Model the fold of this input.
Amino acid sequence: MSWSGHGDGDRDGRRGYHHGNLREALVRAALELIAQKGPAGFTFADAARWAGVSSAAPYRHFRDRDALLADVARRGFERFEATLARAWNKGRPDPYRAFENVGRAYLAFTRSEPAYYSAMFEAGVALDADPGLHAAADRAFEILRRASEALCAGLPPERRPPALMMSLHVWALSHGIASLFARADAGRRALPMEPEELLEAGVLIYLRGLGLIAEPQRSPGNSADEHP
Done:
């Protein structure tokens, strides 16, 4: 889904509030404005104007602009959770492949839902400001934690890394690559490879370091101990 501010609005870009659901109209307005100006680039009055209502009308549903952004972020995390859950697919066909699929889905979400992604991670909305937002974010992260647990299950207990630590490491790696290289906006940095390739290589190195994936066997002719 792309929120670009173009489509069936009037000549100044406004969508207009015609269908009787003001809350949904304001959320849509916020997404359009985030896509155009970023999460910090518009006011509560801008959202009202975009929706085609008076500046007082949004207060029927939202306390202020932060409450509107929190609602957008909550919806984003709900979509994010569904995307990651489909990719994980309960660890099928095997935990490692499913783990890779989750990483690809993370990057794909950044591209397909850039306005939601900005509201979730760049708007500065405190998770504790909205119980629904906090719960939705926790459910999305829980998929990464479950995936980490499944990957570690084959190791002896004494060699198993903490699943929470592992999921936080992989989340940080995925989020960094997504934010820098997989964006669908002007914030994307150039990269001489696909972001998916970079993430796959990074996760592979990390999992090898944990002993979850065996090092490739070197042939005798490629031994580092041999000298010409």
About this structure: The chain is about 55% helix and 0% strand.
